[in-house]
Design goal:
2 copies of one chain form a homodimer. With 323 residues, chain A is of the alpha+beta class. Chain A has 8 helices and 20 strands. The interface between A and B is large, with 50 and 50 residues. Chains A, B: It comes from Aurantiacibacter gilvus.
């Protein structure tokens, strides 16, 4: 099943079910006004949404206008971002010149969840000096998860899979890491690709809690990376169980993989600029690639071997925030 | 003005205006069903709530039953906790045996905001081995704050002041700090004292964005500390401006002071166990005080010199979470 959200002037938007070919949609209706309310009562919502998906495959629905789509869940009570790709963690240690991180636990910070930007929304920053960087990630949305679940139990709470651009301001990242308190200034609002899918929709590309798809990233219309999500050192179910060690996870909690990265980065490229800079430091002793400028664009799309695009594309421009 | 929230089975509860003497209340009514909705439209809500406060002083209203009160804002989109008391930061460095922290910026992490516990609610943990600790703090609730505000501008967005117990699990804190990513396991849900007050309600006790009140803390009915909030190295307006450096702050964002601590800790005691342990390490080379056990209670109340209690009391018991 594929879900999206139409911007309607309300903070949570209007929930849509999208046809398998991505061309048509049906509004979920007043009983399921938005994705957050649906995920809060998923046992009841899921069959209603599946019934609409059947109607769509029977030809019902209206044309889906991608330009009207917000993030599939425009806000949530909780966003926890992991860093589960060991290749990325190793390279970032070089980029940031930091100590080796504790390898025992999955890394995770809590980020801003009151607003997720839509897939085509301009992304506004006050200045370029922050070191504007994209981070291509996958993520999951869970229903209510009780404290202390096992990874196997956590897997049953993964209701939707999403694709995320976790915008980062690198100039703030290292000083904030040095505090030990995590990221506030370095992590403004994320963007989310238009379609949230149930794990079954990914077929063989959903394996052991990992999204085994290439994440194609283009910066200013040039291919920057196409790393595959399969190399997570822990699966999403393990990230969910980790997050729930000492807290109940509220329904609608979104949990991210961290930047997608592969061991053969020389071949597939990177999913963020900072990681490419680390690779340049390894090769040349110094970074060559600068961060983003106002007017730059970034496009992210995860594609199957057959060319299908389960999450749709993030395609955004970085702009100067008006005072 | 003094506001509280009555538990009514809904996640946000029912907003109440409380009389100056704390004995009576009036429901804010269906136009202002809860505090989060009021803070989202404060310009409209404030005069309506003030009119109810006038009615209360004229004798209207019903008896306030403290046992029915939830946290004044039972959930929010964002909770950012600072660490603004230098004495506490210095002592925690000894307790945790960590490096001196970057002194340039106020320390801040993003914590769990989907649930704030009520002032008399039992606080459940899976086991005692987490190192259960309380942290007495003050906090503020802001309306919508645009990215890039100055501290002076930020001051105008501070609408309410609260008193918080930021529950901490110390066994997780140091490993999580070492990741640089901040606290997930070490920081479960906070508790909040029953009354949220407008800054003017604090009179001379609100100075330069600081709550200049003694925070009296009793652990198992013995006085543990009564540090005063005036020694924040930066005021709340500066914490708000810091938080808003690269993000718009959503209305209802709650920002904490961090553990209240004073230079004369030998006299006034501490607001968390971990800090007392640091003082013991300085004195004796090792900590003597253990963390909390199931069945333990903690009471926190901020009192004026005249004995008034603007926030009311947090009075809770730690219990074992049922599987």
């Amino acid at each position: 099943m594929r879900l999206a959200t139409r911007a309607n002037g309300k903070p949570d938007g209007e929930l849509l079910v999208v046809s398998a070919d991505g061309t048509r949609c049906l509004a979920a209706g007043p009983q399921l006004p938005n994705l957050l309310s649906a995920i809060e009562d998923w046992a009841s919502a899921q069959p209603q949404l599946e019934a609409l998906a059947v109607q769509l495959e029977d030809g019902a629905g209206e044309r889906l206008d991608e330009a009207t789509l917000a993030a599939p869940m425009p806000r949530s009570w909780q966003w926890l971002d992991g860093s589960a790709f060991q290749t990325h963690a190793d390279l970032m240690q070089i980029a940031f010149d930091t100590e080796p991180l504790n390898p025992v636990r999955p890394l995770m910070y809590q980020g801003m969840s009151d607003r997720f930007l839509g897939p085509r929304e301009d992304v506004a920053f006050l200045d370029e000096a922050g070191g504007i960087d994209f981070e291509g990630e996958f993520g999951v949305i869970v229903d209510a998860v009780p404290m202390g679940v096992s990874p196997a139990e956590a897997m049953q709470h993964i209701r939707l899979v999403v694709q995320i651009n976790d915008w980062s301001l690198r100039a703030y990242a290292v000083p904030e890491m040095h505090t030990g308190f995590g990221f506030i200034l370095a992590k403004p609002a994320c963007s989310v690709a238009p379609i949230a899918v149930t794990p079954d929709e990914l077929g063989a590309s959903w394996q052991d809690g990992r999204v085994c798809l290439d994440l194609q990233i283009d910066w200013n219309d040039e291919r920057f990376g196409s790393a595959n999500g399969r190399e997570m050192s822990v699966g999403f179910h393990e990230l969910v169980a980790h997050a729930a060690t000492t807290r109940d996870l509220v329904a609608g909690t979104m949990i991210g993989s961290g930047t997608v990265a592969n061991r053969d980065y020389a071949e597939v490229g990177s999913s963020c600029i900072s990681e490419r800079r680390a690779i340049e430091i390894i090769a040349n002793g110094k970074p060559d690639t600068g961060f983003m400028h106002f007017g730059d664009t970034v496009r992210m799309e995860a594609c199957t071997a057959e060319g299908a695009s389960p999450f749709g594309a993030i395609d955004q421009r970085v702009v100067a925030r008006q005072a």
